[in-house]
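INPUT
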Amino acid sequence: MIFKERYREPTLELVLPTMLVSNVFLSAFYERGGFSLLGVVLSMVPVISVSETLAFSLGLRNVIFVTGDHLYNESIISFLTTPVRREELFAFIYFSDVVVPVLLWAFTTALYSLLSGVPVPPLLALTFVVGYFFAENLVLLLTLVFKSPGVSTLVSIFVLGGVFVFGDAGEYFYALQGEYGKIFALSFTNPFVPWIITALGKDLYQQVEVGVAVDGFIAALTFVLSFLKFRGLEV
Amino acid sequence: MKGSLAFALGIALLSLGLVSINAHVTNTQVLSKEMSLSVPPTAYGELELIENATNVTAYVEVVHNGEKSIVRLDSVIPLTPGEWVIAPYQEAYSMNVTRVINVTESLSCGNVTVQKVIHEEKLVESRNATYPIYVKMSVTKMNLVEDPSLVEALGLVLTVLGLALMLFERARRP
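OUTPUT
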C-alpha cells in the first residue's frame, strides 16, 4: 500500500524510461572528453546528470511531500494504528521513499553502461549513492523534526544548498591554491570536486575516499536519529 | 500497470537502438611522450598522425590491443575499438651544419695553415620528438549501444508486449 501510494500509474512509466534514455549524456560527454575519465566524471555529476537529478528529486518528493504531508495533516495516524510494528512501518516507508529511487537509478545506469560499453568506475557510482543517502537522510530527519512540508522544504534547501555551495567554493579555492591537504576536511561536502581534479590529472583518490566515508557516517547517523525520532513519534 | 511500464521501457530501448550521435568530434593532441587512448566499441572514426615539418621524417609506434606496428608519418588509421598506445619511435631530419677546418696550403713562400668554413648536410636521427607530432582523433559516429539491432529487437518486443498487455488489462476491466 505504501509503495502503491508513492508510485501511482504514470510515475514509474515516466521516470524509468527517462532515466534510461537520459544516460545518453554519458556517451556524449565520454566522446567529447576524448574517451578519458574526465567525460565520465562530468556526466556523473548530479544536476548535470539527468537521471541522478531525477532520483534525487523523486526521493525528496517522497520524503517531503508524501511522508511529510502525512505528518502534517496527521493522516500518518492511520498508518501508525495498523497492526504493524513501528520498526517495520519505518522500514517500509524508508524503503519505498528513499531506497527505491536509488535502486531505479542503479538499475538504469548499470543497464546503460552495460549496453553502451562506457566504463563507470565503481567508486564514482558509490560516491553518488553515498551522497544521495547523505542528502535524503538529512532531509528525512528535518522532515521528522519540523513535521511540515513547507518548513522542511525551505530548511533543507538552505542546509543542502549551503553545504554544497560553500563546500564547493572552499574545495575549488584550496585546489587553485594548491593546498590539496585541506581538501580532506571539505571533501565530504561534495566529493565530485576532488573527482574532477583527479580526472584532470592530479591524484586525489584519497580525498574522495575520505569524503565518501564521512558522507556515509553522516548518512548512518541521520538514519539512526530519524529512526529514533520516528519510533518516539507522538501525534 | 505492468503493460504500460513495459510499453514505456520498450519505446526507450527502441530509441536507444535507433539513435546515434552524429556530431563530428575532433580532439588534437601533441605527442611528446607515450599517450594512451581507450576507444569504446560504439565509436567510429579515424586517427590522423601528422608531422607538420616537411624536412622531418618521423616514425611512431602504435600499439593496438597488444599488436605493435611502426607507422611512418603522415598517416591515417581507422579508429577501431580497444586500447591504443602511441609513442614517438624515431625521427630523422637533415640539418645544415657549418664546420671550421684547418687546411694546410703549400704556397711558394712555405706552408701556411688557414682556417676554412665549410657547409655540410648532416642527417640527425633521434628518439625524441623534437618537431611536434600531432595526433588528431576524429569521431564521426558514435552509437549509443554496442549492439543496436539487438536492443532494437528487444525494444520492439517489449513495446508490442506492453501494448498487448495494456489492451488486455483494459478489456478485462469492467
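end of record. The radius of gyration of chain B is 32 Å.
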